[in-house]
Amino acid sequence: MKIILFHLMEQSKNILMGRRENWRCARLSAIRLTMLSVLIQTLNDEERLARTLASLIGGAVEGVVREVIVCDNGSTDQTHRVAEHAGCLYVASGGIAAGIRQAKGDWLLLLEPGARLGEGWIDEVVAHTARQTMPARFSRARGSRVPFLSRVLSGSRALAEGLVISKRQAAALSKNARSAEAIARGLATKKLDAEIWVAPAK
Question: What residues does the Glycosyltransferase 2-like domain cover (predicted)?
């Protein structure tokens, strides 16, 4: 009886290990297919940019974040140095459209400077891009939620919750939109089950 139980336990263990390995391989394949280009539009945002870049480190380590493109609108502070020291591609002219043209990923992640992504965002984005074609936004972290009435009265920012969008759709929208905010405005999107700490208003 003990021998039979031992063999059953060993078989279960091997099956579980096999499933974990298959899941890991599937996840790595999905990550390789995703390869995001992150675009951040800036104007005198050196401190905000640094905070956002720090929250993307995990994505770079996992291989999901292929590149970060900083599209600057004429900053006079040290935004360009923050971008260059972090290894970002710094686009000094042409706005968001120029950044989209230079992006190498099939999927883009547009963020406001100062926004920070919470834990679990990598798996959520990988899963979304593997099975969806529509854009998506993140869920606001509890600490950065604003009452509905306050949002209506102050005017909500379309990019406050970030935007995951295919490069093809973003390129088409950028022909008439001069900013990342304009690209995000009015889009029908899916809500991701991953949190974002919204950048404070300037």
Answer: 37-112
3-state helix, strand, coil split of the chain in percent (to 5) is 50, 20, 30
Q: How far apart are the first and last CA of the chain?
A: 71
Name the packing angle between helices 2-34 and 121-131 (round to 10°).
70
What are the helix and strand counts (H, E) for the chain? 9, 8
Q: Quick count: other Cβ atoms within 10 Å of Cβ 150?
A: 9
Angle made by CA atoms 88, 176, 168, in degrees to the nearest 5 = 60
Rounded Cα distance, 202 and 200, in Å: 6
Question: CA–CA separation, 88 vs 184, rounded Å?
Answer: 22
DSSP-derived pairing of the beta strands 36-42 and 107-111 = parallel
Q: Are the C-beta atoms of 109 and 180 separated by less than 8 Å?
A: no
Give the model's confidence band at 30: pLDDT under 50 very low, under 70 low, under 90 confident, else very high. Answer: very low
Query: What are the tokens at 92?
Result: 């000094």
Does 93 score more than 70 pLDDT? yes
3-state secondary structure labels for all residues of 1-70: CHHHHHHHHHHHHHHHHHHHHHHHHHHHHHHHHHCEEEEEEECCCHHHHHHHHHHCHHHHHHCCEEEEEE
Rounded alpha-carbon distances, angstroms, from residue 12 to 1, 5, 9: 16, 10, 5
Tokens of 153: 């009265």
